[in-house]
Design goal:
Elements: E1 5-7, E2 22-24, E3 31-33, H1 41-58, E4 69-71, H2 85-102, H3 113-123, H4 141-144, E5 154-155, H5 156-174, H6 179-194, H7 203-213, E6 219-221, E7 224-225, H8 226-229, H9 231-235
Helix pairs in contact: 2-3, 2-6, 3-5, 3-6
Length: about 240
């Protein structure tokens, strides 16, 4: 049971002395601001309920029980049950709608630009300070894949371009030029609105499309470059 617990990385304050903690951003190592846990009471109540159930089942209180935890599945691959499909559909729809408006220069890069906007839509909420949504953390892996090919190899071209855009947005934001951060916020806002109505591919279809495009996007994993592992796909034959 303990092996399936994961710290979220968010600190905790008291009601008398709340605070904002700065934590390493998993996307590119920069620092991003996260909201106070008690600013999202619904998510806090959800997490604490599971902690109480865990204490009953195990007969002991988990270490640092006051901190938010995630109960992770035992399997390693990303399955449909791990991801809310409506959120995937919302981010894909938002990328298609906001991309030409807010990221026109990015879309000039054939094959990479549009795919990068999709990744930005998937990670935007961890950049501009929106409350994190913990119930399907596996969806963040859909932005850039994984080094072990789960859910697909890391597309290096997209990964590098996403880092460039996010660094530029945060760097300019520190100088008071928040246009790029505002664009990311609009992208996230649009995704949250569209996830109520958007339709899109199944998770299996989405992952299959990423695997097919991987050689062209410099997909890489601990097993090597995808173009070397699948030379026929890399040459288009």
């Amino acid at each position: 049971m303990a092996a399936r617990l994961r710290r979220t990385g968010i600190g905790i304050g008291t009601e008398e002395q709340p605070f904002l903690q700065w934590v390493p951003n998993p996307i590119f190592g920069a620092l991003s601001q996260v909201s106070r846990w008690h600013d999202v009471p619904a998510e806090r109540a959800w997490s604490r309920r599971y902690l109480r159930e865990l204490a009953v089942l195990s007969g002991e209180t988990p270490a640092q029980a006051l901190l938010p935890h995630l109960i992770m599945p035992a399997h390693h691959d990303v399955r449909p049950s791990d991801v809310f499909s409506r959120r995937l559909h919302g981010t894909l729809a938002a990328a298609a709608e906001r991309g030409p408006v807010d990221f026109p220069e990015l879309l000039l890069t054939p094959g990479v630009g549009a795919r990068t906007v999709r990744s930005l839509a998937m990670v935007a909420e961890v950049v501009h300070g929106a409350p994190y949504r913990f119930r399907d953390p596996a969806r963040f892996s859909l932005a850039h894949g994984g080094k072990d090919r789960h859910p697909y190899p890391v597309p290096i071209k997209v990964y590098d371009e996403t880092i460039r855009v996010l660094k530029s947005a945060i760097g300019h934001g520190k100088l008071g030029r928040e246009e790029e951060l505002a664009a990311l916020k609009r992208l996230d806002d649009q995704a949250r609105r569209l996830e109520r109505v958007a339709k899109g591919p199944s998770l299996e279809t989405f992952i299959a499309s990423e695997l097919a495009a991987s050689p062209e996007l410099d997909g890489r994993s601990v097993f090597g470059w995808e173009r070397d592992l699948n030379p026929s796909k890399a040459t288009g034959s």
